[in-house]
């Protein structure tokens, strides 16, 4: 059982409400998004009317308390939404998911005034929001950021450049990390970082060039440039100098969302491959009649369902605030994203030449899957985190025995 203590730690409860919600999101994705997928791939733009329809359905506020304009729902419900949207369009899911990278830290660390002023508008779908932490020289190494914030005349002046910021081109609000004091030592590099809530239309905030990444057509990240941006004291998020905690808490939850995204990608790729194996004939037999194809499909399904269960389990532990929820989230993100990459690759191989033809829409699954292995903490970082958690668990047990 190590590092867990009870079989009950592996319990996943899915209610009828969860299933009804899944069906509703799947219907929306297939009816509204699917007919636009290839257009999105060609133009690299998501039609604005899709966001309006998602807003009307309440998808912008899933997982956000009703008190702040949201639809409510638990972590598993948010996971289901991410999965079902990603099955059809990971880019569309990422655009909505970027909102949660803003609302999550504000809901956990923000003041009541911050929650009502900012979260409510995002949850109602009135505005988009984004999370600006990554920099050209600081990704998984949160403590490596160079953006600074200095206190002058009662306000904070932020200067810096953020990179790969998802959803920033449409965001009205951003949470921004900046160093407010130098680290006291090399061993304590994580100290001295602070998060701020920044409004897009403030002087000095500039959304820079779009970064043309290989996947997620329709939702490409941008640079965010901060040039002497004045931020009032009331827009400090959490405690000054303790922003590292804000960051890692946000990413601990965000990793479950990325895992769900990967499960959706794998599901979509598997369905395409399975259907094609029935329709495509070779040597006067359907492809599925050949062991080389049939075995691939069996492996794809086995890995897909394993990833789904792992992701739902991580979501369940996160909802419970279980002491090993972070470990579970890292495992889910690591396994599910690699499964998505593997399943997508096999789907292409089953399609043969048609699999690498852009117009068939199969190769996009692999392009979208690969980025999930990188953001929200690259998978090798997740492996390090898992082992560190195990070591802490062992050390704790050793101390209990003395």
Molecular structure report:
Pfam families: Acyl-CoA_dh_1, Acyl-CoA_dh_M, Acyl-CoA_dh_N. The protein is an alpha+beta fold and 402 residues long. It folds into three domains: 7-126, Acyl-CoA dehydrogenase/oxidase, N-terminal domain (Butyryl-Coa Dehydrogenase, subunit A, domain 1, Orthogonal Bundle), CATH 1.10.540.10; 131-242, Butyryl-CoA Dehydrogenase, subunit A, domain 2 (Beta Barrel); 245-401, Butyryl-CoA Dehydrogenase, subunit A, domain 3. The chain is 52% helix and 15% strand. It is built from eleven helices and ten strands. The chain has helices at residues 16-33, 37-43, 48-57, 75-88, 90-109, 112-123, 243-279, 291-320, 325-351, 363-372, 379-401; strands at residues 128-132, 148-152, 155-165, 171-179, 193-199, 205-210, 222-232, 236-237, 281-282, 285-286. The protein has a four-stranded mixed β-sheet. It has a four-stranded antiparallel β-sheet with strand order 2-3-7-6, with no helix packed on it. Strands 9-10 form a two-stranded antiparallel sheet. A hairpin with a 2-residue loop joins strand 9 (281-282) and strand 10 (285-286). Helix 4 (75-88) packs antiparallel against helix 5, helix 5 (90-109) packs antiparallel against helix 6 (112-123) and helix 7 (243-279) packs parallel to helix 9 (325-351).
């Amino acid at each position: 059982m190590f590092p867990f203590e009870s079989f009950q730690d592996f319990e996943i409860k899915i209610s009828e409400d969860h299933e009804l919600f899944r069906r509703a999101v799947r219907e929306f994705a297939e009816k509204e998004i699917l007919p636009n997928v290839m257009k999105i791939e060609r133009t690299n733009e998501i039609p604005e009317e899709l966001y309006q329809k998602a807003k009307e359905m309440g998808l912008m506020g899933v997982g956000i308390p009703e008190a702040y304009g949201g639809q409510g729902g638990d972590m598993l419900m948010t996971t289901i939404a991410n999965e079902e949207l990603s099955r059809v369009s990971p880019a569309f899911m990422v655009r909505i998911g970027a909102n949660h990278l803003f609302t999550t830290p504000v809901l956990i660390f923000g003041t009541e005034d911050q929650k009502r002023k900012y979260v409510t508008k995002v949850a109602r779908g009135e505005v988009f929001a984004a999370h600006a932490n990554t920099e050209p020289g600081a990704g998984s190494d949160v403590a490596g950021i160079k953006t600074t914030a200095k206190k002058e005349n009662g306000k904070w002046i932020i200067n810096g450049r953020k990179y790969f910021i998802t959803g920033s081109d449409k965001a009205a609000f951003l949470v921004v990390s900046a160093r407010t004091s130098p680290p006291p030592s090399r061993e304590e590099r994580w100290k001295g970082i602070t998060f701020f809530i920044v409004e897009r239309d403030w002087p000095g905030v500039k959304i820079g060039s779009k970064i043309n990444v290989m996947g997620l057509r329709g939702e490409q990240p941008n640079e965010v440039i901060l040039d002497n941006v004045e931020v009032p004291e009331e827009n400090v998020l959490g405690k000054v100098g303790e922003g590292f905690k804000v960051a890692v808490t946000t990413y601990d939850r965000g990793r479950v969302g990325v895992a769900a995204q990967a499960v959706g990608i794998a599901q979509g790729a598997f369905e395409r491959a399975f259907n094609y194996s029935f329709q495509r004939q070779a040597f006067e037999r359907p492809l599925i009649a050949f062991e080389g194809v049939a075995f691939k499909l069996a492996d794809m399904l086995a890995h897909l369902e394993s990833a789904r269960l792992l992701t739902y389990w991580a979501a369940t532990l996160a909802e419970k605030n279980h002491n090993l929820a972070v470990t579970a989230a890292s495992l889910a993100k690591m396994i599910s994203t690699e499964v998505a990459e593997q399943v997508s690759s096999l789907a292409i191989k089953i399609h043969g030449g048609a699999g690498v033809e852009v117009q068939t829409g199969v190769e996009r699954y692999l392009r979208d899957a690969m980025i999930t292995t990188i953001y929200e903490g690259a998978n090798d970082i997740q492996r390090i985190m898992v082992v560190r958690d195990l070591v802490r668990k062992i050390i704790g047990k050793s101390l209990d025995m003395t």
